[in-house]
Amino acid sequence: MVSCGGDTVLPTTPGRADRWTLPDLDAAVRRCRVQNARGIRCILAALGEYARSERQVGVNLEHSAAAVAAIDEHALDASLTVKMTALGALIDRDAARDFLLRLCGEARARGIGFEVEMEGRGLVETTVDAAVSCARQGLPVTLALQTSLDRTPGDLERIISHGIRPRLVKGAYGRDAADLVEVRRRFRALAAGLLDRGVPFSAGTHDPDLIAWLVDRPAGTVEFGFLMGLADETKLRLATEGRAVAEYVPFGERAVAYVARREAYLAGLAAEGRAPVP
Question: Considering its fold, how many domains does the chain have in total?
Fold first, then answer.
């Protein structure tokens, strides 16, 4: 076990059932305290994507609102992130947008960062529009964009024009660019454009080549984003070097879809003969 400042958490080592997610908000708070003490901020995510009932949407809203309150109560260096399908985008997209605005407003009122996840290509337009709605109401937001999609350069310019902070990821859903070498090229091109313009962004990647390339650039505008369950050595090294580092911390019982994407990611890397950073 790992102990820091009186809090103890189980390490997320390969092979453990809890490698990718935590069972509840209390466990997420404990992990966040440990990571904060190491100079790593956290991004809390209440699991519950693909909600198909109003009841499940209500539960997801309660869990996300509770995470905002917990971040505030425990003075954590953390933000909240949500998915539009967890807020009911598969049921009523307008209602999901309104729920997003409510959560974003609650986070803003408490001085807590707010982020929006990207999902499959059928939800991209809805998700970008919802993030823009937050920005138009003066609510700060970060939005994940997938470099594997052809539309992403245009979406990136749109959100930057509204003051939305990008989080670049390769993308775990359907891709326009199937070749991972091409996806990496696109990631680097978009990141280079942001760096050259001095636009702050998060780089959500475990790719050794991309991370080495980013580390060679001046610090200050890029945050290195990692998943819980991967890259523990790299997170700590970068944080010790004074780099901005964040860890994505999902919690809750509805973990099947999320875990499946994480396992598929590792399988894809293995098929390439590659591995994520340690």
Answer: 1
Domain holding 29: CATH number? 3.20.20.220
3-state secondary structure of 29: helix
Phi, psi of 11 (to 5 degrees): -70, 150
- Contacts of 1-6 with CB under 8 Å at 24 or more apart are 2/34, 4/33, 4/34, 4/37, 4/38, 5/33, 5/34, 5/37
Q: In this structure, is residue 277 part of a structural domain?
A: no
CA dist., res. 220 & res. 275, Å (int)? 27
- Give the residue-averaged pLDDT of 31-60: 97
Q: Can you tell me whether residue 277 is helix, strand or coil?
A: coil
Say if residues 180 and 128 touch (Cβ distance below 8 Å). no
E strand residue ranges, 149-219 = 165-169, 201-204
Q: Which domain holds residue 111?
A: 19-271
Of 212, 238, 270, 272, the closest CA to residue 14 belongs to: 270
Q: What is the pLDDT of residues 127-158, one digit of tens each?
A: 999 999 999 999 999 999 999 999 999 999 99
Q: What is the C-alpha to C-alpha distance for residues 24 and 46, in angstroms, rounded to an integer?
A: 9
Residue 200 in tokens = 């702050």
The β-bridge partners of 42 are 78, 247
pLDDT tens sequence across 57-93: 999 999 999 999 999 999 999 999 999 999 999 999 9
- What does residue 146 show for φ and ψ, rounded to 5 degrees? -95, 120
Give how far Cα 59 sits from Cα of 47, 83, 225, 253, Å: 10, 14, 27, 12
The overall average pLDDT reported for the chain is 91
Which has the closest alpha carbon to 93: 141, 126, 60, 51? 126
pLDDT for position 105: 97
- Which residues on adjacent β-strands are paired with residue 9? 2
